[in-house]
Amino acid sequence: MVVLAYAALFPGGARRLASISGTAAASPFAIALRSIQRDAITSDPDWRNGQYSRERPPAAGMRLARKLGTVTYRSAAEWVQRFDRQPIRADLRQNTPFAPEFAVQGYLEVQAERWVNAFDANSYLYLSRAMDRFDLAAHGTPHSLWRRADLANALIIGVESDMLFSIGEQQALAHSLEAGGTATRFVPLPCIEGHDAFLVDTERFGRAIGDFLAA
Fold first, then answer.
1. Cα-flanking dihedrals φ and ψ of residue 15, to 5°?
2. What is the chain's mean pLDDT, rounded?
3. How far apart are CA 197 and CA 205, in angstroms?
4. Which residue ranges form the domains of the chain, and what is each CATH number?
5. Mean per-residue pLDDT for 13-42?
6. Under the phi-then-psi rule, with left for phi > 0, alpha for psi from -120 to 50, and beta for the rest, what region is 12?
7. Which residue intervals define the domain AB hydrolase-1 in the entry (predicted)?
8. CA distances from 199 to 21, 36, 51, 127 (A)
9. Distance between CA atoms of 3 and 25, rounded to whole angstroms?
10. What pTM was computed for the model?
11. pLDDT tens across 9-22, in order?
């Protein structure tokens, strides 16, 4: 999103553009998901209207927000491949009612715990809302923005299993660049890792980016 904004709003600042799973505007689906994550944090009594202490952050809300985010960053197909219905690791078992029983739940628990100790709640709230408000159309029509940007060419990569930044959004972005006069290459990738695929399937992404840079 930042890459797209820079290219569109600072004409001449870039000659070539490569965007991976970005968007010209936050989708209703992504906005809805992020709103639930923010609700989880602000509903935590320890949030205290943003005046929480370092020693007592809104940990419960942060954990829920992270778990939801982690689920949406990947795909149902990958969860099956990685975890299926395996039981939770012995070291993560809890002797409490409704404790996690499956490996995928244990994974979410670990991710949530790491995040609570590494990220500030208020920082997350502001970043999340900023993503919701992102909309290049506030600065002009896609046609006029990309024509003014005067890019030599562009690469738009999308992931077919990405639920946060859908493949349809990537295709629409590629079409708007083409309409603005930019020679654009659209590459849909069949990765199963969802939005986080670029962190995992480096072979496919590397090949697409390498071919673009070599052209």
1. -105, -30
2. 96
3. 9
4. 2-25+136-214 (3.40.50.1820), 30-131 (1.10.1740.110)
5. 97
6. left
7. 1-178
8. 12, 25, 34, 21
9. 13
10. 0.92
11. 999 999 999 999 99
